[in-house]
Amino acid sequence: MINKIHDYRCSLVSGVQAEKIIISLQLFGYNKHLKANLQTKPIIELYCQIQHDLTFAFPNISHQGIVIVKYSHQQSLFPWHENCHFELLIDGDQYFPAMLESIRQAQHYILFENYLTESSQITSQFIKAFTDARARGVIVRLLLDDFGAKGLVERDRECLLEAGIETIFYNPFSYKRFIRSLRRNHRKILIIDGHYAYAGGAGLTDEFSHEYNPHQSWHDVMVKVHGLIVHDWIAVFRHSWQQCNPGEWGLPVIPAPVPIHASAGHVAISQGPRLQEINRDFIKHIRSAEQQVWLMTPYFMAARKIRNALKQAARRGVDVRIILPGYISDHPWVSRAARGFYARLLKNKVRIFEFNHRFPHAKIEFCDQWVSIGSSNLDRWNQHWNMDANQEIDASPFADKVRELFENDFTECTEITYEQWHQRPRLHRLREWFWGRFVMLLEVFTRNYQK
Length: 451
What we know:
3 domains
């Protein structure tokens, strides 16, 4: 009986021209070697960290080879792909229509993983698109975070069930197991037939829709992904899905078309404090940046390493700018706590911009021509409890579009200067001090628990 595997990197490989491979598992102090036969299949690679039984994670492994190697915190779970195409979709009036049209064109399967899902007019459009797809024989699987979907009413849940849509609510929230319930699936992913994927920070609520909330719609972005890298997004979804449902996977392997205009891309994931690819990659690119480091995040409770890297980059002449919420936020107390970092950042030549008129929910990291867009917030809660995924892109044409986005957004912001900051009212300082201490206590609590 194979026991639990801890801190290991799993690669499910097919398409390898070989007859046998050796599987070496180091399981709690002893080694075991197994052999497996390989058959030629379309190339698909699945890298994931697993902390449960191998048989639980991959119950159907016939005709496929499995390689387990020890996971290193300096390694990436997914490789960089050169043959990819990326499209930047800004705000709900761009990404919602594109996602709905892709769902309507699906022929084989639809995979949707999402955190924030509430009954709303835009959600009703997605439910109809999902049910119509299922009616024409498309496999539809929805993986919704249980806490994030608490606003999805019973009528909508029954509609999904009656349509035959496979729906899982990740980690059902329970006050009896409160600490365990803090672990949430914060990812936002849509995959169509293995050909296209969408990744970003948008949830399914009318707050993101310019059509239904035209004056104060949340500012967010999604990336439409095309190419072989879509298989990595399938791997991310599959791992989360089979954590909840270890049954047969049962989806066809469909080769992804290779785009004509190709760019380089990489899928980065985070899952608790032991697997923080997204933050690690961001720090690495901040340290190597030569021109600019531009950041947009709704919750700036960044780790000290990130804050120090930003200050060091600014001191060596890099153009470092951060776009943060002003006084419009879904969690104003987090914004007040984040302002406790302003003084030292401003003193070290980091430029800070607060967004006016609406809430900037986008999570964008931009260093020279490297871009990371996804669901990961720069806050300690994400680092300790949430599962996140970002699309990293290293390509000049895409970087130009992101630069244009930032330049437009700067015009909608108010820049905070060091002199202005020291003139703010004492009441504001008191609020910042209080909420900053609250976040510190919360961090101590989470660290002590996870040790």
